[in-house]
Amino acid sequence: MARLNTRQWNLYKYLKERYAENPKAYVTTKEIIRDLPNDYYFTQAEIENHTPAHDTSAHQNIRADINVIRNSEDVYKIVYSSAKGYKIANEEEANKWLHRVKMEALSKLKMYSKNCKCGSLNQQLRIIFNSEKGQIEVFE
Question: CA 20 to 30 Å from 49, out of 17, 22, 68, 114?
Answer without folding.
Answer: 68
